[in-house]
Amino acid sequence: MGRSRRTIPEELLLLALDPATGTTAQPQSLDLGLAGAQLVELALAGRIAPDGDRIAVVLPRPTGDPTLDSALELLRRRGSPVRAVHWIGGPRLGLRQTYLTHLERCGMVHAVAGQMCGVLPTTRYQATDTAISREIRARLDNAIRTGVPPDPRTAALAALAHAVGLGKHLYPGNEGRSSRSRLRDLIRHDPMGGLVAHAVMDVQNGVAAQPRRASAAGPGPGAGRQPAARATDGTAGVPAQPRRGSMARVGAR
């Protein structure tokens, strides 16, 4: 997989990144969305495929993207298809920070060190090229406004953006209500993106015990009670936590 194309996890994170504050919108549900976005990207790369409401590895060959290959290897080790809702709802400690560090390494964001209350170290992230974020947003806007079926990547990105609750961040207020509704409707244009988006919403709503029934678009992110936002250390919406490994650069100490 060449680096000329941004991955769906990268684009989802760039959509969520607030250019004014350097923090991410919907930080907790975004973690679930990034795990789901990895599945969609691996499916588009021909490495995995849906098997009902489960995910099966069909080609274990690495993609060349370290973050995706790590997920692919974990799926391969399962040995049998895994339910999407169980995969997405599994522990994902540091996934958002891993992708922020990855975007920094690729030159798409730069880290800005600071302090909270003059004591706690924080790191915020600013996009180095706002044209990239504008291009991603323009694809969503175009799909929403024209009604023309989007390409699979844009459809999957829209489905995940809706699933994690970015609609109210991208299209706020009453004036954005119709755009949020059309963003939700884009789920139907990509089967894999729809499967993963529904799994993300199911995890948020605590629905993981039974296989999901098929539906046209499914409930929005607010259809059930979502986890309350936890206190953060001010770093791109990342909850304060002990340092783990070389990727965990941010957190209260």
Between the first and last Cα atoms, what is the distance in angstroms? Answer: 37 Å
From N to C, what is the helix and strand string? HHEEHEHHEEHHHHHEE
Query: Overall mean pLDDT score?
Result: 80
Query: Strand-residue fraction?
Result: 5-15%
Explain how this protein is built.
α1 packs antiparallel against α2, α1 packs across α7 and α7 crosses α9. By secondary structure, the protein is of the alpha+beta class. The strands form 3 sheets. The protein has a 3-stranded antiparallel sheet with strand order 1-2-3. Strands 4-5 form a two-stranded antiparallel ribbon. A two-stranded antiparallel ribbon has the order 6-7. A hairpin with a 3-residue loop joins β4 and β5. The C terminus is likely disordered. The longest helix has 18 residues. It has 10 helices and 7 strands.
